[in-house]
Design goal:
Number of domains: 1
InterPro entries: DUF5615
Pfam families: DUF5615
Organism: Phormidesmis priestleyi
CATH class: Alpha Beta
Radius of gyration: 13 Å
Structural class: alpha/beta
Protein name: DUF5615 domain-containing protein
Helix content: 40-55%
Length: 117
């Protein structure tokens, strides 16, 4: 799968996804870096069919109202150490990938994955 990790999440998440065989980039990899506007992230997501991983509720609104980005993973853990977030993603990655086969909007919490219809 293809992923785009948003600015407020660590670049290490993109590397973790790459290590697991996925095509993953971080906003730091884009020409405008972490200053890339949400609209540009949405456009790239649609063009390259990338799942946006974010903590930013603005992407939820955009997805619900405009079906942008292509697919969305909302990280809803609140404040969490980067190492704990990496472990959480690693632990749930297979289930997330499987869920994204049939769904477009998922939410990753500390204790559960929520699939939004």
């Amino acid at each position: 799968m293809k992923f785009l990790v948003d600015a407020q999440l660590p670049k290490r998440l993109a590397r973790l996804l790459q290590d697991q065989g996925h095509d993953a980039i971080h906003t730091q990899d884009l020409s405008l870096g972490n200053a890339t506007p949400d609209a540009d992230i949405n456009l790239l997501s649609l063009e390259e069919e990338r799942i946006v991983i974010t903590k930013d509720a603005d992407f939820v609104q955009s997805f619900l109202l405009e079906q942008k980005p292509y697919k969305l993973l909302l990280v809803a853990t609140g404040n969490i150490k980067n190492a704990d977030l990496e472990n959480l993603l690693r632990k749930n990655l297979n289930q997330l990938v499987e869920a994204f086969e049939n769904h477009s909007y998922l939410e990753l919490g500390r204790d559960a994955i929520v699939i939004h219809q």
